[in-house]
Amino acid sequence: MLNPIVTLNHQPVVYAQISSHLKRAVVASEDAAFITHNSFDWKAIQRALERNLQAGRVMAGGSTISQH
Hints:
By secondary structure, the protein is an all-alpha fold.
């Protein structure tokens, strides 16, 4: 249940004003190996494909950070 007393306050920020540490943390939270696999984690994509084929439906994905 949401707390009716708490409100969110969104304030847009210019990209250049965002800390480079925060930018890297966001990328790392999505894919810690992003820098080392040239944007596409082919092993993760292969594992997702195999898992999906075995399950007979979409269960996993890979390299979503590269989709823009």
